[in-house]
Amino acid sequence: MIWRIDVFSKEKHPCLKIALAISDLGIAKPANIKTAKVYLIEADFDLDKVKQIASCLLIDPVTEDYSLIQGIFKSQPKENQILITYNPGVCDSVGLSLEKAARELSLEVKNARTASFFEFEGLSRKDIEYLAPRMLYNPLIEHLLEYTAACKLKSLDEFSGSDYNFNLITVELLSADDQKLQEISKKGCLSLSLDEMKIIQGYFKRFKRNPTDCELETVATLWSEHCAHKTFRGLIEYVHKDSQDKIVKQETIKSLLKSTVMKATKDISSPDCVSVFEDNSGIVKFDDKNNICFKVETHNHPSSLEPYGGASTGIGGVIRDILGTGCAAKPFASVDIFCFSPWQMAHDQVPLGLLHPKRIIKGVVKGVRDYGNRMGIPTVAGAVLFDQRFLGNPLVYCGTLGILPKEKSFKKSKPGDLVILCGAKTGRDGIHGATFSSKELDEHTVGLTTAVQVGNPIEEKKLTEAILRARDKNLFTAITDCGAGGISSAITELASEHGVKVDLEKIPLKYRGISYTEIWISESQERMVFFTSPQHLKELEAIFNEEDVGLTVVGEVTDTHKLELFYQGNRVCDLDLDFIFNLPQLKKKAFWKDNEEEDLKLEVKSSYSQDLEALLGRPNIACKDWVIREYDHEVQAGSVTKAVSGIENIALSDAAVSRPDLGSDKAVVIGFGINPFYSDLDPYWMAALAIDEALRNIVACGGDPDKTFILDNFSWGSPADELVLGSLVRASLGCYDFATYYRTPFISGKDSLYNEYDVRGKHISIPGTLLISAMSVISDWRKAKSNHFRTKDNLIYVLGFSRPELGASEYFRSLDIKKGLVPKVDKKIARDIFKQLSQAIEGGLTESCHDCSEGGLAVSVSEMCIGGDLGANIFLAEVPKAENMFDYEILFSESPTRFIVEVKKENQKAFESALAGLPLGLIGCVCDEKKLVIYNHQQKEVVNSQVEDLRRSWMATFGEFR
Amino acid sequence: MKPKALIIRTAGTNCDKETEFAFQSAGAETSLFHINYLKQRSDFSDFQIVCIPGGFSYGDDLGAGKILSLELISWFKDALKQFIDKGGLILGICNGFQVLVKTGILPDKDFQQKVTLTDNDSGRFEDRWVYLKVENEGVWLKGLDEKIVLPVAHGEGKFYTESGILDRIEANRQVALRYVDVSQKMAGYPFNPNGSMKNIAGITDATGRVLGLMPHPERFMFKHHWPFWSRNELFPFGCTFFKNAVNYFKQG
Questions:
Q1: Domain count, chain A
Q2: Which residues of chain B neighbour A646 with C-beta distances below 8 Å?
Q3: Is A556 a domain residue?
Q4: Chain A to chain B Cβ contacts (< 8 Å)
Q5: What average pLDDT does this structure show over A367-393?
Q6: Cβ A371 vs Cβ A398: under 8 Å
Q7: Cα of B65 to nearest chain A Cα, Å
Q8: B66 contact residues in A (CB cutoff 8 A)
Q9: Domain that holds residue A97
Q10: Which of A20, A36, A655, A822 could be joined to A6 by an S-S link, Cβ 3.0–4.6 Å?
Q11: Which CATH class is domain B4-251?
């Protein structure tokens, strides 16, 4: 019997937010909106027991009431009412919790599901059907439960699929010609090229048999761009021409990864690197007891389709990467960096198949928030950038840092070990996630609904607790997470040295009807795989039971060097690991042609106050405190420098400082460098500038440039396009040159390619975007620094050399100017600037320090004024710079390796001698009159703004999100 | 002898380790147990202090703290009654406060829910620092300055009840902490971060031995926790709560 309980607020809910959003869509505001949380319960209860559930479990007796009916609808609902529920197979975690809670009342509920009820007084059905999928639900995971469908529903179990009968499927590969092979790849969503299909065909020809669907899927997954990084490990014919078409360089790159990013680490060979590019994250030394690790992932494609689910499973996935590092690390901080399209756009301007950018922004932030907050991992730092080209392909970078005992840094396995799958049950979620993310998006991709997943953070929190307890009792020797490819890649990779046997029917399922292949490649969230000796099983079961986490022995490590899968005793996969892990090297062409460097001069103005205020309100610069505030950035109590600080708590810090262990004096500084706009001019310099920016942020907050480790995350377009690949090569070369120059080893990295989409026949590629994440270990958390002015009369210095480098700068882009010189790192001084400044900070000679980045010197000083609620007088004549620079160039140029530093008068001498030999200018002082005045060479005021006005502009932009 | 503090965790609890750290730094001996482990003992007689820390117990599915409060009632009602009668101290922080009101341990220890903590007026989770006025001199609050700062981090923290009960809580001086502005006046958002009635941030039972509060004292144990440490250093007020609990038994 099915019961429906509607829970609603006793007070009339105004639902202002929904009403407002409706008017955003250009629909008349409804006169009234009614909402209710709906619970559908299937159980053999009488009315009293259902009432007991409703009153004890479902309502808050102080604020809520309920109504109750038998069945889902009493009669045909009114035209202006809708009921939204999850699609079959989508995780309904509240429903599961309800089943558990009912058991506490000794009531056995067969099935429980949730839904949302809305009634819009004064709206037509047509309007409601227009607004609902745009505002209230996402058709990929939810649907409107209609009266006729609901009447046919006999049991809620029908949401759980029907039975599965085993039937071995083979794919006719042996006889296939080229066309057929391509068809098989395309139809099966395998994302394999013809060459690759032929190699697979050749392998099976040796055994004179066709592959099973499972075998083909396994190879496709492990050879996917996502898992195997084919482009970065492939063979690239690279040609570099200058702007005059003269060849500068022509070479065959054997592996871009090994010859750039990994080579930098090898050349630097830092003794502090423990495990790099080997495990699920990069591990470095922390103190005598512990190491720390860091990983950043992207979840771009899923987030473009289902922002909330995509972003939450993005953060969920990278947390598992940390749990799956060594023999499990404890996550202690998360970071996130987003690139979105500007959101001021009419709804009818959004191309078919894409979501409105505002919905993407809100959904992504909410996804990271709900997952991170529930996991109890503070989201401590991040960035948000805007460019139109991210409309159909937002970038969502999620990173997590972990801490682990030194002796737990490596994995071990041996034949005879049990293969254990733990965590959530397996559903059909995210099938083809790995191969899907290796494809370009188009209007039809939306049909691939299973590629999207919904996460359940509490499941992952439980999993984390259980795994860390088991780790501390030495109950397993190897662990990894189930990410792209699910258990297929997790188990195969973890057993790659030995061989493995798995019984697929042992894997606990969320619902019926899932085939053996689907089980194997499902990307259901919140699952981990580990290996252990049989003697630990009992103790493991006790821990996992107490934590209420699933744990199942699903197979055994063998010594056959084979991947053998069985379903109810039937062999469904038999592949040589040698074959799986020796994928063919791809051959690709890459071409790069230098842009003509073209300086551009603007007409000089007498005042730049307005320009400065406008810059502060640009989305890339404006205050995004609302994002940070939605994140629990203080849980675990390790925060030292928070992402928001200063007066009114609105100053944004350059980097975050966190203590992973409250018993240790050491802390970790976490910062980023990202600026996709430079890649339009030259990706080589974008890479240099990103590394420089990450280091600037680290050093400004008290980090040590000599103990800084970096991560690369490339988000690029399709590598099949030789120009796109050319720019990727160019950026990678920049990574090598500047990582080695700064001696900052890469410890981990990831690439996300095919970030392209078609809109109305037009192909749009995102700007190649390199994110550099950096972490530095400092010996004493008490020495962390902040970036807002502290005290009046303190001296203000600019450190670093300014040049008229405004190409792709925030100022030029605000004027829609595409020309200008790209900023360049000056290798003669940059490293010394970092080193000497860091020593001065460590020596206590500075009060505050902020780097100059987007918007240049003027924006940087403004931010220090806003954060400290103090004014400043600045003299441009004292800025160390190239000759004959115009005022606006000194104010807004984005030359790298520059800082604004606040110093007490009594430290003037010591500070200046600490930075001897470097371009350093004493440019002014802090004053308590809350005004920023900047004088030019002729001692004329070029900026004269009240700090209040600067603040207003900097705060206004995201007003609607606050 | 060190007083013994029991910290109860379950699926989704996430402030347990730092809360344990806070009790330890104050000089308590701590036990951090999963509720499933406690179910096999059903007895708190070994402990002087029971704390339910912050987090999202069971994902806050069905309402913040709802399922954990149900579990506590069905498994530990008698144990909790005994513990309270014998003079034990109880602290509920954030999700723990939500649990204490939903079990009905607060405000009257009669296991009847009379007040609630519901969705913030802003409609979203927020992490921010707030000014608080300390309203009574109960066990947990002794010796605190009249105005303190602590961080809040929640989506469901709006204190709400019917007017009769509110009047009684006020009359009995059971209000522990109130959200105020810089000049110690009751003010609206963002000073009152969630829209709580009468700006109530925390309440005690009539004896003051049971405290529930939305702000996180365990997140202000070091001066650098205060986000504006670079400008003015404050005493980490969070320490006082935990020290008070320990001293209560040391002196008693």
A1: 2
A2: 227-228, 231
A3: no
A4: 153
A5: 94
A6: no
A7: 11
A8: 57, 60, 101
A9: 2-160
A10: A36
A11: alpha beta
